[in-house]
Design brief:
mainly beta, Neuraminidase, five-stranded antiparallel beta sheet, globular
Length: 320
């Protein structure tokens, strides 16, 4: 296993944006978006943020609720999962237009959380706000007929997701339901909108912290998982773990920020760079003084050409 330090990229500068950053996502060369899920412990809204790596500038757009994900589309706007709706948000006009409503309509106390795109389809989950009841859903929105399928209804906090194609109609979804501390895989049939039984891919019970966000190495052989550690710790951790044997191959440490929420690849000067978000959420003042970089964004630069990397799972969403 190799270990290296991630570099501090951006400190939001205020507690609202530091509270719960998540979901970095590439939106063109040298730019990425991320969501501030909630602007404080009692806040009922969050924001879409766009960070310009060249200008080192962040632009924030207030959303009409708490977002779980935001993916740029081929039209330059964003597909956003917000509260219990999925819609299109256009930053320039600050216009929000839902096209899926009443997510998790049969239960109370959940909101949309993490998601991923695949060939214009959306796969996303929800979370129980009390973080204890198996009632959160896992969903597929199929682009071809704009139809929503509920794949599961027994998650607690649906988090990191990666997709590997099987054939034209089937994909393998790697999925984290954080309290289980496991990564499981589901075979999803896009034609029928059905989900197979879970198989354990990686067990993280031996690690300090809870698995949160996740992405995949460009070769598809390993998963990259950020650990949200709610206990005192000098650094945060993101691990690269082999899908073949479950061994840890790499570890990136994040100085002064133990609650790491999500890793994702972005394009930086034509190369692939790994951006990681972290959070202040639930951190008492005593720990906050020890974790001076909590709520900041970090980056690891690589020599991997962006054009040569197989980032098919980052396909923009196309809406007719």
């Amino acid at each position: 296993m190799t270990s290296s330090n991630a570099r501090l990229l951006y400190d939001p500068g205020n507690e609202s944006l530091r509270f719960l950053p998540e979901g970095p996502y590439p939106c063109g060369a040298d730019r990425f978006s991320w969501v501030a899920i909630q602007h404080g412990s009692s806040a009922s809204s969050g924001s879409l943020n766009i960070y310009d790596l060249t200008a080192r500038k962040n632009t924030s757009y207030l959303l009409p609720g708490r977002p779980g994900f935001a993916f740029v589309t081929d039209r330059g706007n964003f597909v956003v999962g917000c509260e219990r709706s999925v819609g299109i948000y256009t930053p320039r006009e600050a216009v929000w237009t839902p096209f899926i409503d009443r997510i998790d309509a049969n239960v109370t106390g959940t909101i949309i959380n993490d998601g991923i795109t695949w060939d214009g389809n959306l796969i996303f989950g929800t979370k129980d706000l009390e973080f204890k009841t198996k009632k959160a859903g896992l969903y597929l929105w199929r682009r071809s007929d704009r139809r929503l399928f509920q794949l599961r209804s027994d998650q607690i906090c649906s988090n990191g997701k990666c997709v590997v194609p099987i054939d034209d109609d089937r994909i393998l979804l790697y999925d984290i339901d954080s309290p289980t501390r496991q990564v499981v895989s589901y075979e999803i049939d896009l034609r029928s909108g059905t989900c197979g039984e879970p198989r354990i891919a990686i067990d993280l019970h031996g690690q300090s912290g809870v698995p949160d966000g996740m992405t995949m190495t460009p070769d598809g052989r390993s998963l990259i998982i950020s650990l949200y550690c709610p206990d005192p710790a000098p650094v945060g951790r993101t691990l690269q773990i082999s899908l073949e044997d479950g061994q840890i191959e790499k570890e990136w440490t994040l100085e002064g920020s133990p609650q790491v929420t999500c890793p994702q690849w972005v394009s930086l000067y034509g190369r692939a760079a790994l951006v990681m978000t972290t959070a202040v959420e639930h951190m008492p003042s005593s720990r906050r003084r020890e974790s001076l970089n909590a709520g900041s964004l970090f980056i690891v630069e690589t020599d991997q050409p962006w054009a040569d990397a197989t980032f098919g799972r980052l396909t923009p969403v196309f809406l007719e």
